[in-house]
Amino acid sequence: MANKLDPMDLKQILTLHLDGYSNRKIGSVLGISRNTVNTYMQLFAGSEYSFQELLGFETSALSELFSSHTPLDTVRHNELMLYFEGVNKARNHPRFTFLYHYQQYVELAADPYSSTQFLEHYRRKYPKEKGSMKLQHTAGEEMFIDFAGKKLQIIDRHTGEVIPVKVFVAILPCSQYTYVEACISQKRADMISCCSNALRFYGGVPKAIVSDNLKSAVNRSSRYEPDINRSFKDFARHYNCVINPTRGYSPQDKALVENAVHLAYQRIYYPLREMTFFSLEDLNREIASLLDRHNNLLFKRKESSRIELFQRTERQYLKELPADTYEFKDYKRAKVQKMGYVYFSPDKSYYSVPYRYIGKETSIHYTKSRVEVFYSHERIALHRRNLVKGSYITKTDHLSSTHRFYSEWNPEFFRKKALPHGEYVLACIKKILASQDYPEISYKRSLGIIQLHRAYGSQRLNNACKRALDTDACSYLRIKNILKNNMDRIHLSDEPTQQLQPHIPFHSNIRGASAYE
Fold it and tell me: Given phi > 0 = left and psi -120 to 50 = alpha, else beta, which region is 424?
């Protein structure tokens, strides 16, 4: 007969009729002729059951009641419907495919449907909802994060000041396993620290972190290609995942984390309302206790808790955590100065780079413990961070040969330089180093004396220094004059004594008188 109908449409006809739709409207909505709808409505009305009772029947039962008006093989169809129940339970598995289940169905069924009919019947049994659709989440795929709109507070024990604190919430959507932590602010450093703590709490890493369009996460929001904050992007690189911000003004994209925030108000904020905390650590310790209770509560429509679902369905699909915890990284730009250092403004200090980069614009990547300098995306220097303001942090390899020589100046350096030229040279250098309050002056004089060996040899220089020590005249000019005048070859005892002239008085008051008498 012409007015035969798929039994899955029978319930839809009943539903629309009870909702007040006319037969013409029902036919238009379902794509069925009005005469077919009229026929079935007459059959429904003539049966011994009310419309509400018929609506409560299974599809297979309706098919049997009105079998004369359906072309379906009910045994074959029921077999497919039973198989779909197992398919739908496996729908959330990250590696689910319809092809695999269809091939399995073909092996089991005596008279299988074609693949097209298989998919059509599945979509009819489990239609996609329109409007506010329940999103299907894959295990290990995402972690949603957000900050609660309402704040908690701690009190400064010394001043009594009330300090408002932000509350970070993370959730794995497949199991709804939740993490909550209080932090001072939602700036980049605090947000990234909370994300790192959440991943350690879960003991693994999802494929993506879904964030709101916070300024600490996104520099520029976009529906298609948002600009992720550089620090947050580096965090994702460290944990081998990606950042996927939600669409702007689309709260439905993160409905689960919004609901998690609402539950946090009920199950964490409310029990804490009359408690006082004097530190962030104490507050987070109490939050962890309440959070554990929340994650262990049984779902109303499921026979398991969040933590049980997580352990059973999601934990195994998370990627392993890296060996080391992420250390927050920030960035600065600096030009290499003529002396071969970059100025690091956060600490007002200087860090050396190879001298060939003098005049180049560089990028400084820094954490709490280290400072890295990059040029054209290549790291050219790595230093331990020194928090002492105004300090110069130098690596000898970075300096030119001239700079390296001067950077090594110290008393021990000059003593080692003097030693090969003789004991008196060494004694003279020690005396010069000890005689000056300003070390650079003594360094220059010592260097000048040692350099004299190039023109006169070490032996003569040693003798000249001995003579200078004997006369207590250790200076660069004195020793140079001794060598220039060959006085280092003459001993003090061998020098001729000066002839003293007799005193002859001069009579200036006797005019014309002889000068001598």
Answer: alpha
- Phi and psi at residue 252, in whole multiples of 5°? -65, -20
pLDDT for residue 67? 56
Q: What is the pLDDT of residues 204-215, one digit of tens each?
A: 999 888 887 676
Determine the Cα–Cα distance for residues 140 and 175; give it in Å rounded to an integer.
9
Cβ neighbours for 509, distance < 8 A, ≥ 6 positions apart? none
Are 16 and 29 a contacting pair, CB within 8 Å? yes
* CA diameter of the chain: 175
**How far is Cα 171 from Cα 338, in angstroms, rounded to an integer?**
52
Phi-psi domain of 302 (left: phi exceeds 0; alpha: psi -120 through 50; beta: other): beta
Helices (H) and strands (E) in the chain, counts: 20, 15
3-state secondary structure of 218: strand
| CA 125 to chain CA mean position, Å | 45
Query: Please, which residues have CB within 8 angstroms of residue 358's CB and are 6 or more apart in sequence?
Result: 336, 337, 338, 340
CA distance 114 to 118: 6
